[in-house]
Amino acid sequence: MSLSGALSSAISALNAQSSSLAMISDNIANADTVGFKTTSGMFEQLVTGASNSRAYSSGGVAAFGRANITQQGLLATTTNATDVAIKGAGFFVVTSSTASGGGTFYTRNGAFTKDNAGFLQNNGYYLEGWRTDASGNVIGSSLEPVDTNVALTNGGATTKTSLAANLPADAASGDVFSSSMTVYDSLGQAHTLDVTWTKSATANEWTAQIAPATASDGTVTGGTYTIDFNSDGSLNTVSSTSLDIAWNNGAAASSIALDFGTTGGGTNGLTQKASGSTTPSVSNFSAESDGVSFGTLSSISVGKNGIVQATYSNGQTVPIYKLAVATFADPNGLMANSNGMYTSTAESGNATLQTSGQNGAGTVYGGELESSTTDTTGQFSSMISAQQAYSAASQVISAVNKMYDTLISSMR
């Protein structure tokens, strides 16, 4: 092997070990970086000419980095309700701008916080998801930045009410009893409705009249119901099951479906049984209505499976977005950017958008972050190995230098 070949190989070794040490340095520096994936130094032999048993041509070595993007980091619980982590394959989808035309990036760094405009962001990258209805069902086909201001208030009109009570069979004709229930209009305002029960002269028959407790609240259309019971006290028929109210506060008119129980013999709603008292009364009255009172946004959190939830001052928690999980044919082929962001390449392939835990995508966990995959013990071991190899290569250069001196001296 020629001296020049030895020198060239030693220099390539210095360059390769320098590159390896740079990778190790980055890995150690990011030991506490959320979602960080290490890079491993890989070495390849260089050959400058054909070698055989009788002739040898020195080459050297080259180093390149191998990304460990698919390596799973440990999930750690945090106190921030908008922190998210993925256990398994996939990345969160983020955009560099909330306006159309922003660049698309992918990340495992789920340390998202709400900015002044209400968007969930991480170092200027905005988390994306699908808009959902109040049941958590996706209602949009395209991703959009998660904007918590889309639902600053909460409230809903009552559309159905289930009534249950026992009307005393031993009441006299003309006896009147009162109950009350609460419903909500489209503005989320609560209204009290009075229910007046009157025993009819006809056997097993009652009338119920429903109207606002405060007459100025609104006007009822109809509101009077004839209720007939069977001889065993079960519900037979009800003349109507609808209640229409025109509110006077600017809210939309309410159309409420009333459920008095199963007609034709049911006992799951209204019944007529003897009270067994000298002063009969309506007993076991209950009224269960849907609808929600007005509430303002109090907090945002991300639940399991990537559902972004809004909690309101009225105690309601409503899904507003579902996070997407992007998967790739070759995740290790992604191009790394600062802040734990990646972009797709020809090698990685295009992103396939999945929901949490579906079609091979990882599961999204709220209130957790993925730790760095750096193992400092292993990195220190690699650093010592790189240092020793670098020192050995430098000794080769020193030896070659002395041999050149010897050669030159012999020629004088």
Note down, in words, how this protein is organized.
The protein is α+β, with helices and mostly antiparallel strands. It has three domains: 104 residues, no CATH class; 115 residues, no CATH class; 133 residues, Tick-borne Encephalitis virus Glycoprotein, domain 1 (Sandwich), CATH 2.60.98. The chain contains two helices and 31 strands. Strands 5, 6, 7, 8, 9, 10, 11, 23, 24, 25, 26, 27, 28 and 29 form a 14-stranded antiparallel beta sheet that branches. Strands 12, 16, 19, 20, 21 and 22 form a six-stranded mixed beta sheet that branches. The chain has a five-stranded antiparallel beta sheet with strand order 13-14-15-17-18, with no helix packed on it. Helix 1 runs antiparallel to helix 2. The radius of gyration is 37 Å and the shape is rod-shaped. The relative contact order is 0.20.
Quick structural gist:
This protein is an alpha+beta fold. It has helices at 3-29, 376-410, and strands at residues 39-46, 60-67, 75-77, 84-87, 91-95, 104-107, 113-114, 120-122, 125-131, 144-145, 153-156, 160-168, 176-184, 190-199, 205-212, 218-221, 224-229, 235-238, 242-247, 254-259, 270-273, 283-289, 292-302, 307-312, 317-323, 325-327, 335-336, 341-343, 352-354, 363-366, 368-370. Helix 1 (3-29) runs antiparallel to helix 2 (376-410).
